Amino acid sequence: MSKIFVDACFGKETPYTPVWMMRQAGRYLPEYMEVRKRAGNFLNLCHAPDMAAEVTIQPLDIVGVDAAILFSDILVVPNEMGMKLDFIKGEGPVFDKPIASEEDLNELIGGEEAASKLTYVYDTIKLLRKQLDERGDDKALIGFTGAPWTLATYMIEGQGTKTYNICKKMMYSNPDLLHKILHKVTEVVKLYMEKQIQAGIDVVQIFDSWAAAIEPSRYNEFSWSYMVEIADYLKAKYPHIPIIMFPKGIPAFLDQVYGNFDVFGVDWSTPMALAKEKLGDRYVLQGNMEPCRLYSKEQTTACVEAIQNIMGGKRHIFNLGHGILPDVPVENAQHFVRECQRVSKKA
Questions:
Q1: What is the CATH number of domain 70-263?
Q2: Is-catalytic flag, 255?
Q3: Active site residue 293
Q4: Which residues are annotated as part of the binding site for substrate?
Q5: Catalytic-labelled residue, pool 73, 104, 123, 232
Q6: Is the pTM of this model over 0.90?
Q7: Residue 89's pLDDT is what?
Q8: Which long-range contacts link 212-218 to residues 24+ away (Cβ below 8 Å)?
Q9: What residue segments make up the domains of the chain, in order of their start?
Q10: 166-188 per-position pLDDT tens digit
Q11: Is 154 a catalytic residue?
């Protein structure tokens, strides 16, 4: 069965512009919170294929989106490379021993050995593939990874950061070490995404959540080139799988965008008209409503209509410009999806 979301990723004509939301399987849904409570904690939920599959599918039925995105976390990759990961209440993800030297890096496993440890992710995908096929609808399944730079920031800083000073100190004072870290992570991510495809995902998205931490003149060297390397690897083997690149916060970098991928995710700080002007002839564009507009149905409608006016219902996928926030009312998320489908529906 042809999937509207996959067709849209390749720029094909669709009955309306499909829509999904980053973080759509999450804390704004009471049903998600019930499953998370059963799991005991976030990492347990990531490691339990039956529960991870359950929360992946919830937004399809509750909110009405056109694609499910695998429920997991970007940090399962460094965790399985050998870095002990904890999610601490009030602090978020924390690694007990950040990478500070080449010796630290050499202690981590890489390549096939690391990618093969993520069996719970592949088992979740296989379960979802079976469940989605049994439903007989045209909903797509998106797999994902963090970009090497975003993963490396956590691995070097040891946790989330507002300044990235430890990473950037390495970038400017020991770039060879940073490149060795990025290379090792990239090799794992290539195989991780390949195994996700083999398990049954329809689309790949690569998140560079911390792209804006790098100055424009260094962005390609330390982030984008590694993302392109992953895309090239996957496209050479799986040309039928669309690839979405989502670097957050880079309106100044649009002239640097290149590579063999299909969809460019536009974050909310980048004007959609600018992204269309710079990239719309080469890539399908995804996005880019400011997530906080979801607090107001009126503001949601106004933004959806404005984006539709810019994109004209062509070579576009509706989404937020980043993830949905935990206190957004479910009915507002449903309103967003209905409005996207209303304004773009072809007669």
A1: 3.20.20.210
A2: no
A3: no
A4: 23-27, 73, 154, 209, 322
A5: 73
A6: yes
A7: 79
A8: 212/248, 212/249, 212/250, 213/153, 213/164, 213/167, 213/168, 214/149, 214/168, 214/171, 216/250, 216/252, 216/253, 216/256, 218/171
A9: 1-16+266-347, 70-263
A10: 999 999 999 999 999 999 999 99
A11: yes
